[in-house]
Structure formats: structure tokens, C-alpha cells
Amino acid sequence: MIKKTLVLGASNNPGKYSYLAIIKLRANGHDVRAVGLNKSEVGGVKIVNSKKMYKGIDTITLYLNKKNQTNFFEYIVALKPKRVIFNPGTENTELENILQRHDIFFEKSCTLTLLATGQY
Questions:
Q1: How many separate domains does the chain show?
Q2: pTM over 0.90, yes/no
């Protein structure tokens, strides 16, 4: 099943996991959007540096550390995703509580592992 996914904390640096996530998500046929610090492009996906209000987001996969997530709390809730994936290093109890209050499912996992094992 194709899932419209937002990579939050996207980077055009091939050494970053967010870069690999964009590539792997696209390779698995998912519809990918990306928000990062700098405008760029990865594998045909434009990275925007604004809180663009995408419609129909199924999954937000986080690549922002706890400190950098704070400015995105309202944005994440406003997008009304079906789930949020906290990749390793992005765990955040405050955001988890906010998601629970808005009935948004979340999991502490690794997008790359979920894709590689067919569990995405």
C-alpha cells in the first residue's frame, strides 16, 4: 500500500539517514514530501524549508532531535497524519503526549528497518 509520507528533518547530505529514507521510500513506491532546513532535492523529491500544509499525509517520519521538534508540534498535529515514526534519536515524551491527546498513532522505530522488513 502506497503511503503519502512526510520526511521531517530532510537533508540532501547522502550521509544522513533522512536522505536514505527519501531514496528508500521512493524506491518502495511511496509518495514522499520533505521538509528540511534548506531547500534542495533528493531523488526527485523537493525539500522545502517551510511548514507547507500537505493534504493526505499518512505518515510523518521524524529526523529532528528533541530540541528541534518543538517548533513543529502544531504543524505535525495540523497535518493530521495517521502515524508518526520516531526514528532513533528523535524520541520525545512531550510530543508523544501531544500526539496521544490528538489520537495520532506513533511508534518508536526506524523507517529504514520498517521498509527493509516489509513492515512499513
A1: 1
A2: yes
